[in-house]
Design goal:
Chain B: Pfam families: EMC6. Chain B: Keywords: Endoplasmic reticulum, Membrane, Transmembrane, Transmembrane helix. The structure holds two protein chains of two kinds. Chain A is elongated and about 75 Å long. Chain A has a two-stranded antiparallel ribbon with strand order 1-2. Chain A has helices at about 10-35, 45-60, 70-80, 90-105, 105-130, 150-155, 170-185, 195-205, 210-225, 235-245; strands at about 140, 165. In chain A, helix 1 (about 10-35) packs across helix 7 (about 170-185) and helix 4 runs antiparallel to helix 9 (about 210-225). Chain A starts with 8 loop residues before the first helix and ends with a helix. Chain A is mainly alpha-helical. In chain B, strands 1-2 form a two-stranded antiparallel sheet. The longest helix of chain B has 29 residues, at about 25-55. Classes of the chains: A mainly alpha, B mainly alpha. The interface of A and B includes residues 141 and 142 of A.
């Protein structure tokens, strides 16, 4: 590097480490709070029934090749029959389920709570970082970046000749935000509420689940070609048994 | 052939080698995926700290990251006794999975260690 700034040890002691420690602790706190706030909502029996039908149809699709053709076809007719097939839902009714889910106050409250518990700590920490830790160089990232990143990374620093590698504490905050996800998954085991993208995907998928996926399952089942995969299972059983005897 | 179970390792056989048809046990597959993810995350954190302490910069650091990932992949393959297809459904999983997530953790710990050791 051309100029190698030497930074105050106090920055390391009072900025980098506390910020990381605070973010880890907030993550752990959020995990426990989300565990406590898991309100037990009584699931609507109709929705549960539809969910189970979907699971059953999916299993049928996955294991279709292991049952004889005739039984597969009879099961398929059971599911996608026009009159009383389980997957066949008239259009009007499908929309209704979705609308009902969103207007249901309980469910809306739940989603709001989950959303808030994600957003509030992030916002608060960001504001705290901005208030206390702005206006000086906090860290040096070990790889060079182009000039375009300067405005993003060097927010409080008003010198334009400083290398882009010297970043402000805001970018240290963002770096922590993304990098600690892996650490959380190691410390907290599975189910931790710190991965934003996963939560958002899950949240957007939940509301539309019953109405659209019924139609999707039905289509998938209709398309499926049945290939009888165990035609020679008698021969194979014979081969396995022979191997065992030997 | 069926009674061969590896209780000391944490990877489970997820497919029996039928003659033509691979059958996958979804639960075991998921477990194996988790093992890969944990291994990669852990190795990328350790690799980040090492890279920072040794003072790698820019390109060398990323080359080091690829090296660490390659070592992790090799270790995983060796643990699966080189018969990848009986534990995973494709090569891509064991080699490429968790790459990007590991990258972020690597960069974080690399920056951290580098700053602590070299700048301050």
């Amino acid at each position: 590097m051309a100029e190698d700034l030497v930074l105050d040890t106090a920055i390391r002691d009072w900025v980098l480490i506390p910020l990381s420690v605070v973010m880890v602790l907030i993550g752990i706190l959020r995990y426990f709070v989300s565990k406590l706030m898991l309100s037990s909502q009584v699931p609507d029996p109709k929705i549960v029934k539809e969910g189970q039908v979907i699971v059953r149809a999916r299993n049928l699709r996955a294991a279709a090749n292991f049952i004889p053709p005739k039984s597969f076809r009879s099961r398929r007719v059971y599911f996608s029959n026009e009159e009383n097939g389980l997957l066949f839902v008239p259009k009007g009714q499908a929309q209704n389920a979705q609308a009902q889910m969103f207007s249901d106050p309980n469910m809306a409250m739940d989603m709001m709570k989950k959303n808030l518990s994600m957003i509030i700590p992030q916002t608060l920490t960001f504001a705290w970082v901005n208030f206390f830790f702005s206006g000086f160089v906090a860290a040096k990232i070990p790889f060079p970046l182009t000039q375009r990143f300067r405005s993003m990374l060097q927010n409080g620093i008003d010198l334009s000749t400083v290398d882009v590698s010297y970043v402000s504490s805001r970018s240290w905050y963002f770096l922590n935000l993304f990098g600690l996800r892996g650490l959380f998954s190691l410390i907290l085991g599975e189910e931790n509420a710190t991965d934003d993208t996963q939560r958002m995907m899950q949240m957007s998928g939940f509301g539309f689940d019953p109405s659209k996926s019924l139609g999707a399952e039905k289509d998938g089942l209709d398309i499926l070609q049945h290939e009888w995969a165990l035609p020679k299972f008698e021969h194979r059983a014979e081969a396995v048994l022979k191997k065992l005897i030997r | 052939m069926a009674g061969h179970s590896d209780s000391s390792s944490s990877e489970k056989k997820s497919s029996e080698a039928m003659n033509d048809l691979p059958i996958f046990s979804a639960e075991n597959m998921q477990n194996n995926m988790k093992v890969i993810y944990y291994s990669r995350t852990f190795m990328s954190i350790i690799g980040g700290v090492i890279a920072g302490i040794l003072g790698f910069t820019s390109l060398m650091g990323f080359v080091f990251y690829f090296l660490v990932m390659a070592i992790t992949s090799f270790g995983l393959i060796a643990k699966a006794k080189f018969s990848v297809h009986s534990y995973f459904d494709s090569w891509n999983r064991i080699i490429l999975d968790g790459f990007m997530g590991g990258l972020m953790s690597f960069v974080l710990f690399w920056t951290f260690a580098y700053d602590i050791v070299h700048i301050f």
